[in-house]
Amino acid sequence: MLHLRMISPPETTDPVLRVLADEPGVTHITCARGVAIEPEGDLIQADIAREAANEVIERLKELGIEHTGGLTLVPVETVLSDAGDRAVDEAPGDPTDAVVWEELLAQTHEESSLNSTFVAFLTIACLLAAVGVATDSPVTIVGAMVVGPEFGPLAAFSVGLVRRDWALVRRSAVALLVAFPVAMVVTLAATAIWEQFGWITLTGVEHSNNVDFIYEVGPFSLIVALLAGAAGMLSLVTSKSAALIGVFISVTTVPAAGFAVVAATVGKWNIAMMSVGQLAVNLSGIVVAGVIVLELRPRAGNDVGPVERCKQWLGMTSKVEKVNWVEK
User: Fold this and answer.
1) Cα–Cα distance, 130 to 168 (Å, whole number)
2) 3-state DSSP assignment of residue 7
3) How many whole angstroms separate alpha carbon 197 and alpha carbon 210?
4) How do residues 45-98 score in pLDDT, each as one tens digit?
5) H or E element that contains 36
6) For 221, which DSSP code?
7) CA distance 254 to 140
């Protein structure tokens, strides 16, 4: 479930309470009038089943709560309440299938911003990838994969496409289009210095047999990118953050960028171009998979996903839900 906390001006409080009371997926409604100081107003709290959250939020936004007051939404890990159980049961769909769009937009908005921290992490990851190539070390390459922060803007790009939020799409694209060149230029300068010391050589790059998978583009490059992108988006919408580690070490986005730089410094332009191709395939595959996952999941508060529809027809859900689905 999700815990909803609002500050509402007095003239809007009663309509807000009606919205909450009319939704069977909402429970534990409380109201403390006149206690809010900044902004002034009434404090309203409630618990909402994830499946009902989108519809409730949309109706509250129609009342202008986000402009005249404020709205905070946080996940609730444990709820011991018969009323809470009823709210989850009466809300259409399954909690794990529900995409709470405002929650997802808030997450991806933060991850998609171009800032010094994002550029620093990406630069460090590219430098690690260059060291991994120079030392033929798969372990270092894996470290570069984990450090790389590029999945955030890629996920935001997918969300922006699905929601037709072109500002989010532009912000995500700018973050990637600026940060990657900056990281690669810094890595280029570092590798040029290392080459002068003899730490990076043409022979070493040509015999990097343990990390040559980075630039070898093939059908499985796209398949892995699609699977990783799907797993990453699922981890975001279901708050399963542990799965993101698997995503980070599955795709060779940052290592491909690092390998392209190292190969270019020693004059291996064919390997450099193959690495750039690998980078493009991985970035595109992650975005496409993210869009597909979001399109297949419920799009509104009273929608259900394809899995839930099958469960309904197999008699695994309530009669009320089945009637609602038939009416649609």
Assistant:
1) 31
2) strand
3) 23
4) 999 998 888 889 999 999 999 899 999 988 888 888 999 888 888 887 666 667
5) strand 26-36
6) H
7) 12
User: How is residue 243 written in tokens?
Assistant: 């799965």
Q: Determine the Cα–Cα distance for residues 192 and 182; give it in Å rounded to an integer.
A: 15
Structure tokens, 320: 């009320």
Residue 1, token pair as written in the block: 């479930």
Q: Give the tokens for residue 289.
A: 């998979």
Return the CATH number of the domain spanning residue range 2-91: 3.30.70.260
Q: Where are the domains of the chain?
A: 2-91, 104-296
Tell me the whole-structure pTM to 2 decimals.
Answer: 0.75
Q: Give me the sheet containing 26-36, strands edge to edge.
A: 26-36, 41-48, 2-8, 70-75
Q: How far apart are CA 49 and CA 79, in angstroms?
A: 11
Q: Got the DSSP string for 254-302?
A: HHHHHHHHHHHHTT-HHHHHHHHHHHHHHHHHHHHHHHHHHHHS--STT
- Joined together, the tokens standing for residue 254 give 């940052």
Structure tokens at 265: 């410094």
d(CA 9, CA 174): 38
